[in-house]
Amino acid sequence: MRNIAITGAGGRMGKALIEALAATDGVQLTAAIEHSASQHIGSDAGELAGIGRNNVTVVSSVLDVVDAFDTLIDFSVPASTANNAQVCQQYTKKMVIGTTGLTSDQLQSVQSVSESAAVCMASNFATGVNLCFKLAEIAALALGDDADIEISEAHHKHKVDAPSGTALSLGYSVANALGRDLEEVAVYGREGVSGARDAKAIGFSSVRAGDIVGDHTVLFAADGERVEITHKASSRAAFARGAVRAAKWLAGRDVGMFDMQDVLGLK
Q1: Active-site entry in 155, 158, 200, 231
Q2: Where in the chain is the domain with CATH 3.40.50.720?
Q3: C-alpha distance from residue 67 to each of 4, 92, 93, 129 (Å)
Q4: Is a pLDDT exceeding 90 seen at residue 94?
Q5: Which of 53, 123, 196, 218 is the most exposed place for a label (fewest CB within 10 A)?
Q6: Are 38 and 8 in contact (CB under 8 A)?
Q7: Which residues of 91-103 are buried (b: 16+ CB within 10 A; e: fewer)?
Q8: Which of 35, 134, 156, 159 is catalytic?
Q9: What's the pTM?
Q10: Annotated catalytic residue 155
Q11: Per residue in 105-155, pLDDT tens?
Q12: Domain 127-233 = CATH 3.30.360.10
């Protein structure tokens, strides 16, 4: 039985993770963490998620429960993830990371963990999205430079980074397949007289509205035809199930940096 800790226990994703862990064989929630100012400190994690009491009390720091888990599932904010990574490195704990928007320094903290323990980091843990990464790569290889490529995404009004990490991952999948450097060809939104489209550009557009869980589309537009690869998430349960699947998969790995493509055998 794998002992799992989660961060952000009182948030929407945290509650989905608690529910997913309770429904999955071979894993159990043994620790739940929230930020120090949270009103949920001291609450029972199961009751918080609406699945009934599970006798896991929400605490304010990973250090408070470091002996209670094998793997930390972290869907929080960049600064918190980087701090938690330092703790996991010190105590040789595995990590599943769904936080996006990390700086290069914060990513280095995560990389340091993978030198002593296994880490799975992905911009999106939904199985369908990771299939779309592969499909986008295949489409890019087939269509080559004959199609213009645009990536659009939509999320809820509370999401703070744009474009989404998933949209960027789709961009890297396409750019790598075509031998392009995404940093050089990405176009993030357009305004005014932007001029004719560069044939090698990969465009990004973002919508932030309402309670949209996450929609992503890669458009390949050639003369006379269009191909669209779309994924729409209707519930955070899809991300939670994928993250728990990754945590179970890490049980067979000692060290290294992995992603959901590794977990699903798509590489």
Answers
A1: 155
A2: 2-121+236-264
A3: 11, 11, 10, 34
A4: yes
A5: 196
A6: no
A7: eebbbbbbbbbbe
A8: 159
A9: 0.83
A10: yes
A11: 999 999 999 999 999 999 889 999 999 999 999 999 999 999 999 999 999
A12: yes
Total length of the chain: 267
The answer to whether residue 190 scores a pLDDT higher than 90 is: no
Choices 3.30.1490.20, 3.40.50.720, 3.40.140.10, 3.30.420.40: CATH for 2-121+236-264 = 3.40.50.720
What is the spatial distance between Cα 113 and Cα 98, in angstroms, rounded to a whole number?
Answer: 15
Specify whether 267 is catalytic: no
Which residue from 235, 124, 108, 111 is spatially nearest to 171, judged by alpha carbons?
Answer: 124
Q: Which residues contact 145 (CB under 8 A, 6 or more apart)?
A: 178, 199, 200
Long-range contact pairs involving 10-13 (C-beta distance under 8 Å, separation at least 24): 10/34, 10/38, 10/39, 10/40, 10/43, 10/48, 10/58, 11/75, 12/236, 13/75, 13/98, 13/236, 13/239, 13/240
Contact 235, 213 (CB under 8 A): yes
Report which DSSP code applies to 71.
E
Dihedral of alpha carbons 77, 78, 80, 81, sign: positive
What value does the CA radius of gyration of the chain take, rounded to a whole number of Å?
19
